[in-house]
C-alpha cells in the first residue's frame, strides 16, 4: 500500500491479523496434508434475519475489498506468529507470499438480502480463501447491521434528513464504519470527522451543553457561537429553559437563525411549542433539529411534529437492538485438486444439532411480478433458469485477485433506495414480522 | 509517536479525528469569544446502568491514555478541516500545536462503577478538554460494555476458562478492543490474532467445519490436524455425527487427545454423552470445549455439565444485550480565567427535560462494612470526610499532559476480580435487579 496513506487515521497497514487463529492452524494442517490447494468455494449468508426484521441491507462490501487488498503478512506479523508457535516454518513461508489471487462475487453494496441469500462468494484455493473468513465476516456483519437500522430510520424519516451522531457510543473505528454504513442506508450527514475525512461523508455539528455552561450567561454563549459561525448556525436551546432560550436565540441571531436543537424532554410537545414560538418571533425559516435517544419508532412518532431533521446516535451505532448480523462463511464446494477444471463437490455440515447449510456453488435472483415488484428471492445451484437470467444478484467484485468493482459511496446509497423501492410495501412497516420476501431454493437434482 | 509502531495493525497515527465536529466548532467559537482558556473540569459518568445490571466495569482506561497521547492534528487533517471550512485560521493555528497539557484522574481500569460514579475527570483549559470528549466516550462506552458482559460470564463460568471468539461478529478493530476488555473482565484467551499481537493476550484456535469438509473423510481431516498440531489439539466433532466423530477422534489421536469441541446442538445433553463416550474410550483427560451462541445464562446452565471450557462470541462482543455503556462527558465546573488559582464555579444543565447533572468537581469513595464488604458508592464535592479518605476511588492517570499510570493488562484483570469480590454477594446474581450498591451524594452545602 501507499505509505502516504499511513497518515489516514482510519487505515491500517495490514488487515491480515484481523483473523481468528484457527484460520492459520487449518492452513498449517492443510499444507501438511497436501489439501491446502484444493479449489474451494466459500459463501457468506445468514440463516435468519434479526428477529422481526423484514429485510437485510448489504453494507461493507467496499471495505471488504480494501481488506482483501491489504491482507499481507509482513515481517512483524510473521515474527509474532513464529514466536507464539502458532504456525510452522512451511506455513510462515506460505504467509510471507500471501496475496489473494481468486475471485469474489457478491450482492452489490446497498442491495437488500434475505435468509439464505449468498451475499458473497469467495473462490480460490482453500488456503487463500479460508484466511479471509474472519475479516470478511467482521466487516459485513457489523456494517450490514448498522445499514439495516439506518434504512428503517430513513424510511421512518421520509424526506427529512438524518444526522449520524453515534461515535461516542461505539468503538472509535467502528464509529467510522458505522457512519459509512448509515450513509449507505440513507443518512445524510455524520458528526464523525474521521468518517468525513476517510469517506467524504458530509459532516455537521455546532455545539453542546458544555459550551453554554462555559459562558456566564446563555446569551453570551449564543452570541459567541453566532459571532464565530454566523446566523445560519444551530443553537442548542435546552440547557436551562427552552422558551427563554428560543427567545434569546432569535434576539441574538435574528430571524435568519439557521436552526435550534432540542436534545431532551418530550420532543413532540416541545417541537410544537418551539415552532409556534419561532413563528411568532418571525423566525419562520428557522429549522428545528431533534436529537435525544431517537430510534426508528421515535422518528416515526414525530412524523406529524414540526421537526426538520433528526440526529441519531446510540440506536444507530448499536443497530437498533441488533448490533450484528448473523452472517456465516461456509465452505460449500471444493474440488479434489487445484485444477480449475476439476469438478466441484458440494459439501455441507450435516450434524443433527442445527446449523446445517446447503451445499453447492449458488446463484441468486430476485423474481418480480408484473409491476416490477419483488416476489421471491430465488437461490439455486446449477444452471440459472432463463426467466431469471437478467434478475441475477451476484456481481463480480474481484477477479484473479484484482478488485474490479470499486464505486463511490453514493452508488450503494442510491442502489439501496432503488432496491427497497422494489420490495413489497410491507417492507417498510416498522412492526415485527417475517422477511418480506420468501427464499425459494431451486437446486439442481442429482443426475439432472 | 514511534513510526515503527505503524507496523502494528491496530495502531493509528493520530486519534484526533475520532471527534464529533461540534467539538471543533465549540472550540472555534470559544477562541473567538475569549473563553477557550477558561480552566474547566469535565467528568465522565453514567446516569444509569444497563437495565437490570448490578454493577459496571471500567474498561478502556489504558486505551484512553494512548488516545490522549496520540491526539495530534497533522498537516493532512488540518488541510481537511480547512477545505471543509469546519474551522477558521485561528482555530487551525490552535489545533496545529494541540497537545493535552492538563490532568486526568479516574477509576482505575477493572474497578467497578455505579450510577453517578465519576469514572474519569479531565481538567485543563476548556479548549484542550472539550476536544477529547468523543474519543474518550467511544473508548469507555464500548470497552466498559464488553467488560461488564465478560465479568458476568466469568462469574457464571467459575473456574472454567472462557475463550473470546467474537471477532467475526463485530467491527474488525472493535474486536481487538473487545478481546482486551474481555480479558480485563476475566476471559482467559482470545481467538483474535490482532489482540494477541497488540496486547499480548494468549490466543487459541484449531479448526472449523470447513476443514473437515475440505477432506474426503472426517478421519482424514482429524489425521491431518493431529499430524500438524499434535495429539494435544482440539478436534471439532459435530460436522456429521458426534458419536462417530468422537470415536474416530480417539482412534486417530489416542487417549492423549487434548480436547473435542462441540459447536451445535443441546450442549448439556451432548456434553454428558461425549464425556461418557470419551471415558469409555479411555480418553479420561480429553477435555470438552463448547462454543455455540453462549451467553452468561447458557454458561450458568452448563455448570453441572462435564464441560472444561467455554468459547463465547456474539454475546460477548455485543455486550450480552447491552453493546454500549451510557457514559457522558459533562462540564461540571469552570473558572472565569485560565489562572490555576481562579475559583471553580460548579455548572450543570438545568432544563426540565431530563438529562440533568450534578455540578461541581467530585471525589468518590466506596464505603465498606466491618467485614470489608462494600455498602455504598459515595460521591461528593468539597472535602472528603476523614472516614472515607483511604477509600477513595479516583487515581491519577495523566499529570500535566504526561501519562503517569500505565500498567500491563494483568493488573486491571486482577483488580477487577478483587473489586468484584468485595461487592455484596448479590452482585453476581445473573437475574435482573437494582445496582448492588446505592450511590450516596455528599455535597458541600453552599457556604459550609
From TrEMBL, chains A, B:
Q: In which pathway does it act?
A: Cofactor biosynthesis; NAD(+) biosynthesis; nicotinate D-ribonucleotide from nicotinate: step 1/1
Under catalytic activity, the entry for this protein gives: 5-phospho-alpha-D-ribose 1-diphosphate + nicotinate + ATP + H2O = nicotinate beta-D-ribonucleotide + ADP + phosphate + diphosphate
Q: Kindly list any coiled-coil regions of this protein.
A: none
Write the record's keywords in alphabetical order, separated by commas: Glycosyltransferase, Ligase, Phosphoprotein, Pyridine nucleotide biosynthesis, Transferase
Q: Which Gene3D superfamilies match?
A: Aldolase class I, nicotinate phosphoribosyltransferase
Q: Where is the signal peptide?
A: none
Stated EC number for the protein is: 6.3.4.21
Entry-linked InterPro entries: Aldolase_TIM (IPR013785), NAPRTase_N (IPR040727), Nic_PRibTrfase-Fam (IPR007229), Nic_PRibTrfase_pncB (IPR006405), Nicotinate_pribotase-like_C (IPR036068)
Post-translational modification here is noted as: Transiently phosphorylated on a His residue during the reaction cycle. Phosphorylation strongly increases the affinity for substrates and increases the rate of nicotinate D-ribonucleotide production. Dephosphorylation regenerates the low-affinity form of the enzyme, leading to product release.
Q: Where is the Nicotinate phosphoribosyltransferase N-terminal domain?
A: 17-141
Instruction: Extract the GO molecular function terms from the UniProt entry.
Output: glycosyltransferase activity; nicotinate phosphoribosyltransferase activity
NCBIfam families attached to this UniProt entry:
NAPRTase_put, PRK09243.1-5, PRK12484.1
What is the annotated role of this protein in its UniProt record?
Answer: Catalyzes the first step in the biosynthesis of NAD from nicotinic acid, the ATP-dependent synthesis of beta-nicotinate D-ribonucleotide from nicotinate and 5-phospho-D-ribose 1-phosphate.
Q: Which family does it belong to?
A: Belongs to the NAPRTase family.
Protein name, as recorded: Nicotinate phosphoribosyltransferase
- Naturally occurring in which organism (per UniProt): Streptomyces pyxinicus
